[in-house]
Write a structure and sequence with these properties.
This protein has 169 residues and is of the alpha+beta class. It contains four helices and ten strands, in the order ββββαβββαβββαα. A three-stranded antiparallel sheet has the order 5-6-7. Strands 8-9-10 form a three-stranded antiparallel sheet. The protein is elongated, with a radius of gyration of 28 Å.
Amino acid sequence: MGAGGPSVHVARRARSLDGPTVPGVVEPGTPLSHALTLEAQPPTLVYVMPRTPMPVPAAIEQEAPRRELVVTWTDGHASRYPYRALRQHCPCAVCVHEWTGARILDPERVSADIHPIEVARVGAYALRFTWSDGHTTGIYTFAMLRGLCGCEECTRKRAAPAPPPSATE
């Protein structure tokens, strides 16, 4: 123990700003010991964006006779996606130009009998399809899929003007 209290032990040789190099020990009361023992302050948040939880798929089913993927979301909504329309909207860099966002895939070249061989979750945010034409690189985020839902309710919501921001936001 030094004159100012117990020493702070560190894993490597340290040199205090006002003293000699000491193997593994920093003397109390030195600027280095002060820096090593400062308590971390929590960050100050200036603005927190309001968050609305995004629904995620609760169930995913293929309806082969109708050639549709049916996604039932955690908010109870059911979305139906024709296989061909999903393949035509593939967001990967082979199908959409990475920098311009221009569609590269010609939708007419997608076969009418396209179907998913496999549907896999990507983490907690997306689905990845292995298509019957061999294409595998598209990652369809849940937000994108929800935006592709063609039901009357979703179409009406997308067409409605956005409400003006409130004064409390």
